[in-house]
Each structure stands twice: as C-alpha cells, then as structure tokens.
From TrEMBL:
Domain Carbohydrate kinase PfkB: 1-294
Short name of any one Pfam family annotated for the protein: PfkB
Family: Belongs to the carbohydrate kinase PfkB family.
Organism in which the protein naturally occurs: Yoonia rhodophyticola
Protein name: Sugar kinase
C-alpha cells in the first residue's frame, strides 16, 4: 500500500446553529480536509495526517475523529503544554465571518524536530502540504520542513503543494511570497488558486500563475480559478479544463481542498492530468453543494 502524508494544522471549528448562542463543534483545516477527502476517494492508499496537538480531551477527540474517518494517526505528535487552535464562525446576512484562536497552537511546533520529519517522510510516497502549513510554523520550523521535504523528494517521494495564500498568517506580503516561492521550488505538483495569486503575486491572468510556478521547477501546475477555466501544465504540455457550472452553490468552503484530494486520487490511480482535473472539479462541485468543509460525498 502506498503512503500519502498530509502535513498541517487541524482546528476546532465552532459553527453557529439556528438557536442564538448554540454552536456545532467539529474539526477542520485545509490539509486535514484534503486528507479527509483523499481517504474517501483513494481506498488503495494509506492516508496519514501529520500534525501536533495537545494531551487534553479535545486533542483526544481529534485523534478519534481522524481514526473514525480512516486516517492514519501515526504522525500526530503530542505537545505537553499546548493544544489545538480554534475558530468560530459568525453569520451575518448569510455571510460567514471567521475569528481565530491559533497563535499558540501545538501545530506551530510540528516541524520543530527535523529528525522526526525525516523519519516520517522516509515512509511516504507522496507528501502534501500548503502555504498555511508553512505560515504557522515557529522558530526553525519552516526551514526544517522545507529541508525535510527536499530530502524526501531527492529520495523519490512526490511533493504536492497548495500555495493557499493567507496574508493574515504572515508578517507581510514579501515574507509570504518569499516562503511560498521557496516551497514551490521543492515541489513536483503545485495547485494554486488564481484569484489569490493575482492579488499577492500580481499575476495578470491564470497563465501567468501557471508559468511562474512552472519556472520554479514543478512538473505539474494546476491553476484553480473558482467556476472559471482551469489552466494546467504537465510535463511541458499545456491545456485547459472547464469545470461544470453549478447553479445551486451552498457553501464554497473546502472547494480547493476537496479538488486537490480528487486530483490526487485520480492521479495516483494513473489518470492523465486533464482526466484527473475533471474528476477533481466533480468532487469540488459536490462539496460546494453542501454546507461546511467536510461534506460526505461517499
Ligand atoms: P479555493 O477554494 O482554493 O479558493 P477555488 O475557489 O478556485 O479554490 O475552487 C476550486 C475548484 O472548485 C475549482 O477549480 C472548481 O473546479 C470548483 N469550484 C469552485 N467554485 C465553483 C463554482 N462556483 N462553480 C463550479 N465549480 C466551482
């Protein structure tokens, strides 16, 4: 069985219910969402989630949640005096607003120990991480993570990176763009979303986003663009795929995360890239017709 390791931060999600002051508690986070969809879509793969959590009951609940979903928890580290970050959703006139408590989260330390990363990655066939994974690391975490990923890549592991630009998690735009570009340089497959890249890197169109990441050295670049045309390049060949129109969008949360899982699931089973992109956009299409990040599509 092949091993996919998704690396990043899981958070407690508190989403408001119809009765004022009542919330539903769940778990979410970009790389967790992708792992959650990947295990549903890739039954032939071992999907593990690498993160750091606390030793408290809420952290135990996350481990149970992952295990119940079929996600391997071998690489979940326990931190003695930290716990999981949390976000709360506030609804105003149908719009979702987010408040975060994640500044001291255990996941900020997930890459503190380089040897631990190397040990985990030695078992991996595919490593998936994001700009958020990188953004939240403290101390030497970013250097450690990228060095361990580069070493795994040299040993033959495929590296897949979603740039997931979140300026609020970085000191400034320059710092974000520098680190995201460094991460791109150690990646085989890059999955950006054009609207964010246009704002923060100044890309005039999706082709510019594609070309910039191809220039960083990736074999495969797939540029998502909401309901608009997806531009890709794979092994030197360029093309486009048009996602199906969705007239009854309920909630676009995790569109990109589920798309990435759909793409990987098809790709690891040997699908050609255009076919894998079509499969990915069909997964995302079903996810945006449901509420929340984790929509049971299978
Ligand atoms: P992110 O969530 O990372 O910002 P996007 O919004 O670009 O990602 O969406 C990812 C994918 O989800 C798109 O490439 C497309 O396949 C699908 N998607 C997103 N929004 C829509 C929509 N309104 N209609 C149809 N497909 C969509």
């Amino acid at each position: 069985m092949k091993n996919l390791i998704s690396v990043g931060e899981a958070m407690v999600e508190m989403s408001p219910q119809s009765l004022p002051g009542h919330f539903h508690m769940g778990f979410a986070g970009d790389t967790l969402n992708t792992a959650w969809y990947a295990i549903r879509l890739s039954p032939n793969w071992n999907v593990s989630f690498m993160t750091a959590i606390g030793r408290d009951k809420t952290s135990d609940q996350l481990v149970s949640f992952l295990a119940d979903a079929g996600i391997d928890t071998t690489h979940v580290q326990r931190h003695d005096d930290r716990t999981i970050g949390l976000y709360m959703i506030a609804l105003e006139k149908g719009e979702r607003h987010f408040s975060y408590w994640r500044g001291q989260s255990a996941a900020r330390q997930l890459a503190a120990d380089r040897a631990r990363l190397d040990e985990a990655f030695a078992q991996a066939d595919l490593i998936y991480f994001s700009g958020i994974t990188l953004a939240v690391q403290e101390g030497d975490g970013r250097e450690n993570l990228l060095a361990a990923i580069a070493a795994a890549r040299s040993a033959g592991c495929q590296i897949v990176f979603d740039t997931n630009l979140r300026p609020a998690l970085w000191d400034d735009n320059e710092q974000m763009c520098d680190w995201v570009s460094k991460a791109a340089e150690v990646s085989d497959m890059i999955l950006p979303s054009h609207d964010d890249e246009a704002v923060h890197f100044g890309d005039a169109d999706p082709e510019a986003t594609r070309d910039r990441y191809v220039a960083a050295g990736a074999t495969t670049v797939v540029v998502k663009n909401g309901p608009r045309t997806i531009h890709y390049q794979h092994e030197g060949r360029q093309g486009v795929v048009q996602p199906a129109i969705v007239s009854d969008v309920v909630d676009t949360t995790a569109a990109g995360d589920s798309f990435n899982a759909g793409l990987l699931a098809a790709y690891v089973e040997g699908a050609a890239i255009p076919e894998a992109i079509r499969a990915a956009s069909n997964v995302a299409r079903r996810v945006i017709k449901g509420r929340g990040a984790l929509v049971p599509i299978k």
